Amino acid sequence: MLPSRPPPGLTPRQWDVLRTALDCRTDEVLSASALAETLGLARQNLREHLLALAAAGWLEYHARPRQPALLILTPRARALRARQGAHSVPLPGFPVLGEVAAGPPGVAEQHVEGMVTRLDEVLTLHEGDFLLRVRGQSMTGLGIFPGDLVVIRPAEVAHNGDLALVLVPGEDTATLKRWQRRGRTVTLLSENPAFEPMRYAADDVQVQGLLIGHVGSVDARRRP
């Protein structure tokens, strides 16, 4: 177990940060955002401690514009962990391991860019946004399958081409469709040719939100 008293040159709070980093289950790279969540610190407050630890030679701090800040334990820090027999605890989150080619094959590299711990780290979410679970096959043309989660931003107005959550007459739940309005007629279009367009008087339908993202599982896409 690591000692409770900090090494020379470190404040007690800096030592708390370093001890937590040393206790995380990682051999080399960890995410500053995941570390902040583990410590219950704001990222800006954590950054000050990380810069001090980097200056003291305990870790490398790599901050990149619009990307997760990464931390690398120095040999000095790893030696301290090994010497004290620090136990490993899981760092919350899932690793982002670089990029994958969706076109021609690329060379796979096992490089951890960061750790994703919350949905708002991969989607641009605002206060008030919410999730719904998909039922039905009408949006499979967009890769949205039954059981997937869609992220909805509350809205009362949709523009032509928007993917909108719409309350329609005679239904006890809203439906997710592509919005098309011509004059006083609204057409709700599916992304599956097996489903016919739905047409209503504009006054009879109510927009409840717009699709801003979706999370799906490969299980829903498997065919028997």
Description:
- By secondary structure, this protein is an alpha+beta fold.
- It has four helices and twelve strands.
- The strands form three sheets. Strands 6-7-12-8-9-10-11 form a seven-stranded antiparallel sheet, with no helix packed on it. A three-stranded antiparallel sheet has the order 1-3-2. The protein has a two-stranded antiparallel sheet with strand order 4-5.
- Helix 1 (12-23) packs across helix 3 (43-55).
- The radius of gyration is 24 Å and the shape is elongated.
- The chain starts with 11 loop residues before the first helix and ends in a 9-residue tail after the last strand.
- The relative contact order is 0.12.
- Residues 95-211 form the Peptidase S24/S26A/S26B/S26C domain.
